[in-house]
Amino acid sequence: MTEKKTHKVTLIPGDGIGPEVTDAVVRILEATGVKFDWERFAAGAEAFEKYQEYIPRELYESIERNKLALKGPVTTPVGGGFPSINVTLRKKFELYANFRPIKNLPGLETRYPNVDLVIVRENTEGLYVGLEHEVVPGVVESLKIITAKASTRIAQFAFDFARKAKRKKIHAIHKANIMKLSDGLFLKCAREVAKGFPEITYGEHIIDNTCMQLVMNPYQYDTLLLENLYGDIVSDLCAAFVGGLGLVPGANLGTDAAIFEAVHGSAPDIAGKDIANPTALLQSAVLMLRHIDEDAAADKVQAAIEKVYGEKKTLTRDVGGTSGTRAFADAVITALEEVA
Ligand code: NAI
């Protein structure tokens, strides 16, 4: 028998609820039998306290080596302070595609049943380049950068994904009626790419209308292609369809590296209380398992999650249960044995 491969993964527990949900997920992944070698690093305020760097050099080097990271959320100060660690990592490793599947878990009753949406968010530019300056006191300029290269690349990603996953429709979401040049370019690139995919219906909706349409009838959409800011906002909106931020996973994908993290942030309001739901990071880890060709383990973890939700006995508070983060993780570990 061939020896099982050990996967080296950079692990960023993050802060707020990050360490709790990461701990839960690592315990579950270890219980799958897949071999991992975790390289653990602090980032953000915690890293600065220890190393006087928000992103330690060793962390960058670890991702460069492993090309794979599992990441908890990191707090970003509002209105000042250091730049977002998340945005910095995405830019540094050119993780241009933020992939967020929004799907109901069987057994969990939510605002909308049977939702199956995919959000494809451009992850490197738009307003998130953070190019802001004060022109004169009382006047601030914030630059939105849209390039043909990044817009074409993300459209290509969305269409390639849709073809592979046999999905039927892509809507590019924009505000090109106002931002005629920037969002106009995003659309122009999407239309060009769409020409190569005649089997996929291509549509365009304006962002404000899209928010209303989503809440009225999310079933009219299939795959949404969005620039950075719209993708960020619409992700949280869509998370509410399937039970909230405690559920929705994400992947930041580039040509040379991938970082898997939940859509949610560090949730300071519930941090350190053993009440956060680790399912979002766990489902991100399922995406990671598929990325490293551990499909059997991915299927097993997904089945275990669905079993625990189906039984409704050990759920966290955000989804109507009374259990803690650790108890939920224990239940998934037990379920892993039962679904094997
Ligand atoms: P948030 O996503 O942390 O929390 C929003 C709401 O959802 C809160 O009520 C929170 O308790 C709840 N929630 C989030 N995750 C949950 C979970 N796993 N289980 C149960 N409930 C959960 O958003 P917020 O409060 O706007 O941001 C807090 C911090 O997180 C900010 O500093 C922000 O910059 C950062 N952030 C980091 C991200 C990342 O590291 N990828 C992504 C988004 C925000």
Q: SSE layout and pairings?
A:
Layout: E1 6-12, H1 18-30, E2 35-40, H2 45-51, H3 57-66, E3 68-71, H4 85-92, E4 97-103, E5 116-122, E6 132-136, E7 139-142, H5 148-164, E8 169-174, H6 182-194, E9 201-206, H7 207-216, E10 223-226, H8 228-239, E11 251-253, E12 258-261, H9 279-291, H10 295-311, H11 325-339
Parallel strand pairs: 1-2, 1-3, 3-12, 5-10, 8-9, 8-10
Antiparallel strand pairs: 4-5, 4-11, 6-7, 11-12
Helix pairs in contact: 1-9, 1-11, 5-6, 7-8, 9-10, 10-11
The structure holds 1,4-dihydronicotinamide adenine dinucleotide.
1,4-dihydronicotinamide adenine dinucleotide is lined by residues 17, 21, 73-76, 86, 245-246, 261, 264-270, 276-277, 280, 318.
Task: Give a description of the structure.
This protein has 340 residues and is of the alpha/beta class. It folds into 2 domains: 1-95 and 245-340, Isopropylmalate Dehydrogenase; 111-242, Isopropylmalate Dehydrogenase (3-Layer(aba) Sandwich), CATH 3.40.718. Helices cover 40% and strands 19% of the residues. A 10-stranded mixed beta sheet has the order 2-1-3-12-11-4-5-10-8-9, with helices on both faces. Helix 7 runs parallel beside helix 8 (228-239) and helix 9 (279-291) runs antiparallel to helix 10 (295-311). The longest helix has 17 residues, at 148-164. The protein is globular, with a radius of gyration of 20 Å. It binds 1,4-dihydronicotinamide adenine dinucleotide (NAI).
Strand and helix order = EHEHHEHEEEEHEHEHEHEEHHH
Low-confidence stretches: none
Which kinds of small molecule does this entry bind, naming each only once? 1,4-dihydronicotinamide adenine dinucleotide
The proportion of residues in beta strands is 15-25%
Shape: globular
